[in-house]
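REVIEWER CHECKLIST
Item 1: Sequence provided? yes
Item 2: Single chain? yes
Item 3: Sequence as submitted:
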Amino acid sequence: MYNVKLTDKEVYHMLYLNKVEGMLPYQLEERFPVSKATIKSIVNRKSRKDCFEAFMYYKEKHPKKVLSLF
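Item 4: Structure as written out by the authors:
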């Protein structure tokens, strides 16, 4: 059904929306052309671990700056 690769920027945006704005996977599904399972894998650190870890590190070290990313 879906055969789309997300860019790192899209993954970071997804993580921002989930981890900072509090959007749920079903809400993210409306914004990104991938399945809810793919979104859950990304926000739960099952896939795209490099992006997840980089985002969480930046979020922890720069909590005020992360609010202005997107």
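Item 5: Key structural point noted by reviewer: The two ends are 29 Å apart (CA to CA).
Item 6: Recommendation: ____
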